[in-house]
Specification:
Blueprint (H helix, E strand, L loop, with lengths): L6 E11 L2 E24 L2 E13 L9 E4 L2 E11 L5 E11 L10 H6 L1
């Protein structure tokens, strides 16, 4: 079994900029994100895949649900935070990531396209 690698993430909190919601950088953190589950959901008229992740990072007292972790284009919204072992060393965050649903392209020489021709 391969060990999970830590990656740098940006921890952000929600803010209001005038009347518009936005995000403010809180800290740079190192974390290990592990995919737990994925499912398809239609939201707001668009199709999305909802991916659930478990993220482990060093304990920070200021991490609360509603914050998010960002790495490049990936955004993980934090829903639940647990202090592992109650010692203030590590915490697990249950997060969700919404990504556009990728429809397979049937014009790319896939078996379904080959069966037609």
């Amino acid at each position: 079994m391969r060990a999970m690698r830590q990656h740098p993430y940006i921890l952000e909190k929600p803010i209001l900029v005038g009347q518009r919601p936005g995000w403010a950088r809180v800290a740079d953190v190192w974390a290990v994100a592990r995919l737990r589950r994925g499912k398809w959901r239609a939201t707001d008229g668009s199709e999305k895949e909802l991916l659930t992740h478990e993220v482990r990072l060093r304990f920070r007292a200021d991490v609360v649900p509603g914050m998010r972790l960002r790495r490049g284009q990936r955004t993980l919204l934090i829903h639940y935070v647990d202090d592992v072992g109650g010692r203030g060393r590590y915490q697990l965050c249950q997060c969700e990531e919404r990504v556009p649903f990728a429809q397979p392209d049937l014009m790319d020489g896939s078996p379904a396209e080959a069966a037609k021709g």
